[in-house]
Design goal:
Layout (H helix, E strand, L loop, with lengths): L1 H30 L4 H109 L10 E2 L1 H14 L12 E2 L19 H6 L7 E7 L8 E8 L2 E9 L10 H6 L1 E2 L5 E2 L2 H8 L4 E8 L5 E11 L8 E8 L32 H4 L12 E2 L20 E2 L10 E8 L10
Pfam families: Fibrinogen_C (PF00147)
Subcellular location: Secreted
Protein name: Fibrinogen C-terminal domain-containing protein
Length: about 425
């Protein structure tokens, strides 16, 4: 209302000035007005009114301007706070997603522990029975040592039968009770020839799990012999999610140098109780006896954990430079093995002394201090240098342990790559 009154005053003054001006001009034309002194007084009065109006209008606008500035500052603060809230909500959603996954793991762990309690009690009883049988066997063997240096030259051969039965029982997952009868043979100067069956090794960690072994959550070290392998080799097995996983790579503390030549990556290196690479030949045998899944578990220096699952994982043999075949991503870490812009699928393995990458002018393995299925060069590289706290020596040369969808400029704290048969309790999409 105050502003409306001011505007009405401005209009009236303007009309008055216009009328006076027109009348003055007309009067001058007609008869040369002799009232100039009156016009001067009128002009002076109008100027005074205009100044008063200007001062009043300025006083009115000044607080409005201050209020506008204050409100603008408040709006700016509100926008900043809304941006922070939005960022916090995004972080909270990610944390909730991770906590949901961790709670699922805890629930499964508790479920398996409860399920395994009865089995553990029965196994303790079976072990007690085995110990008693072994004690009897030791007593018999001690008695037989008194016969002479020739060992089992004469006397009771029931101990030999007991030893054979105990060996077979140790290889089986179910315990069978057998009774042996003692027989006597004539003295002889040589032991009878015994045919020893070739040990039967499992094909991989899940094969052992299916046969009743390793039913408790945790890590195991066992010998396996995949289809096509010429000899058995030692592996690290992890039991979780209703399956036996065979670990093919682990990084955890930087104790092992992963900047190695072709032969080392072919045969494997490191310590399976710590950091290691299982060996490309062994990985080839494991992944070519049926469809295999890959799981990559990663930890950042902040303590945050991530995982990436691939429904299909296989490599070729050395004649094709251990070429990688992988697809079917799901997980929470992001896809850094098969992204559209720089996929590692279909790429050959490269080391410092055997360059098979797609970069024609350089060796990615040398440039990034490791070995991998490089493209030109990578979106993931889990065999790079180990950097404490995740900070590279050179910001522009990211030669650490990298999974770019987690962080393109920070090296990871720990990594485990593991495989299992595809049809073995397929993991759900844990996004």
């Amino acid at each position: 209302m105050k502003l409306q009154s001011i505007l009405q005053g401005v209009v009236l003054v303007s009309v008055l000035l216009l009328t006076i001006s027109v009348n003055a001009k007309n009067a001058t034309r007609r008869r040369k007005c002799r009232c100039e002194k009156y016009l001067g007084a009128v002009n002076k009065a109008i100027d005074t009114k205009l100044k008063e109006f200007e001062e009043m209008f300025s006083k009115f606008l000044e607080p409005m301007s201050d209020n506008y500035k204050k409100e603008s500052a408040k709006l700016l603060d509100i926008n900043v706070k809304l941006g922070e809230i939005n960022g916090n909500m995004t972080d909270s959603q990610e944390e909730l997603r991770r906590e949901k996954y961790n709670l699922r793991l805890v629930w499964e762990h508790m479920y398996y522990q409860e399920q395994s309690a009865d089995s553990l009690n029965s196994n303790f009883k079976a072990l007690d029975s085995i110990l008693k049988n072994v004690s009897l066997l030791v007593d018999k063997l001690e008695k037989m040592t008194d016969v002479g240096e020739s060992g089992l030259i004469s006397g009771d051969t029931s101990a030999m039968k007991i030893a054979t039965a105990a060996t077979k029982a140790a290889r089986k997952t179910t315990i069978k009770t057998t009774e042996t009868t003692a027989t006597k043979v004539e003295s002889t100067t040589t032991l009878p020839s015994m045919k020893v069956d070739e040990p039967q090794y499992p094909r991989d960690c899940h094969d052992i799990y299916l046969k009743g072994g390793m039913q408790f959550l945790g890590d195991y070290y066992l010998m396996v012999k995949p289809t096509g392998a010429t000899k058995p080799f030692k592996v690290l097995c992890k039991i979780f999610k209703n399956a036996g996983w065979t670990v093919i790579q682990r990084r955890m503390d930087g104790s092992v140098n992963f900047y190695r030549n072709w032969h080392d990556y072919k045969t494997g290196f490191g310590n399976q109780a710590g950091e290691f690479w299982l060996g490309n030949d062994n990985i080839y045998y494991l992944t070519n006896q049926g469809d295999m899944m890959l799981r990559v578990e990663m930890e950042e220096w902040s303590g945050r954990t991530n995982h990436a699952n691939y429904d299909y994982f296989r490599i070729e043999d050395e004649s094709d430079k251990y070429r990688l075949h992988v697809h079917g991503y799901h997980g929470i870490a992001g896809d850094s093995l098969t992204p559209h812009w720089m996929s590692h699928d279909g790429k050959q393995f490269s080391t410092m002394d055997n360059d098979n990458d797609d970069r024609y002018y350089d060796n990615c393995a040398k440039s990034y201090h490791g070995a991998w299925w490089f493209n030109t060069c990578y979106e993931s590289h889990l065999n790079g240098r180990y950097y404490t706290n995740g900070t590279h020596n050179n910001y522009f040369v990211r030669d650490g342990i990298q999974w770019n969808t987690i962080h393109p400029h920070s090296s990871l704290k720990s990594v485990e790559m593991m495989i299992k048969p595809y049809d073995a309790s397929k993991l759900p999409n844990e996004v």
